[in-house]
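Box 3.1 A note on notation
Throughout this textbook, protein chains are presented in two layers. The first layer is the amino acid sequence; the second is a token string describing backbone geometry. Keep the layers aligned when reading.
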Amino acid sequence: MKCSLFRSRLFAGACLAMTGLSVLPTFVFAQEADVIHFWTSGAEAKAVKAIADAYTQRGGKWIDSAVVGGPAARAAAINRIAGGNPPTAMQWTSVLALRDLASQDLIAYLDDDAAKGNWKAVLPPLLYDRISYDGHVIAAPLNIQASNMMFYSTKIFADLKIEPPKTWDAFFVVADKIKAAGLTALAIGIQRPQMHYLFQSVLLGTGGSDHYRKVWVDHDTDAAADASTVKAFEVLRGLTNYVDSGSPNRKWNDTSYLVQKNQAAMQIIGDWAKAEFVVAGMTPGKEFGCTLAPGNENHLITIVDLMAFPASDQKAAREKLVDTVMDPAVQVSFNSIKGSLPSRTDAKIANLDMCGALTENVVRQSPQNLVPGYSGVFSGDTEGAIGDLIVQYWNDPKITAQDAAKKLADILSKIDK
């Protein structure tokens, strides 16, 4: 058995436990679905309950194995697979890591389910590509999430008579007015995931979609070190002047709270944050607004929540759960709460609010408007290295934008082409 996945520090111990395993036994009853996931914020917990309730209504028993944070959840799943006690299913977003698991025969193929449900016809091409490996379908996609949304306080914008900025140059003009009023312009938590979302949005907004794809998708080292990437790092450095002192290591949902309470004007984060505003009793277009990050018009940087199924003899529970999560009605229920769009193009959320209508319109215009986020194009090690670079650059003004761009190019040069 290969152990390429376990070269990273996170999985080093698990590799030892896996040596010699060829069959993954299970000790759960057929209709029990033990699901590892990291939907743990208030709104996310409500959303995943919609799936759990639907599975229960179909005669199954949902065992909720929630873990805080994607990396911790993935580690928990890997450890259980390595220990011979795999969960029935696991929430996943890291595409390359999932394909690595599939290459080691650790993931169940969903080819029959996909053929029966005609997934290739009802999923956008980018999503179908993400769940495919070596001619097989290896996961069920639950949604289309946009990580480049900008949420803003309508009160602050109305009081200061300003409009949501559509370019990064306009952002700084608006941010200066907010700062002059004694308020925080940009709410951010200095953590790798949030900084990834912010930098992606800046990279797309300064260089355009073609440049973004060259750097983020094609791993073009020349593009990573060019003037457009340097400009993105310069914009990122400028943003450090508009955050509050409590930003280091603050969780994204706690960061959303600042905008909810009109203590900060804007937050750039995924569309899942909308659900936190709604749970707080707020209405899109009234107490808060949403648009795409500056310069990101007509493009969604997508993250897809995948449900993957470790190879095991839990076939009955797996098939029931696949049917559940790919049911258009269940996807509508889940994503209506979570704030994202269903992965299935034939699953329509009725009466979309301003945030949902914005992202749905982008998807409807063209499949080319969807570009992948970091979890769809980088391995865990590369993702971590770039995230560390972004955080280090943010925290250390001695690192120049040119140096940061060269370091990004160096990281990308180490990716196997």
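DSSP finds 19 helices and 15 strands in the chain. The chain has two domains: 23-145+302-372, 146-299+376-413.
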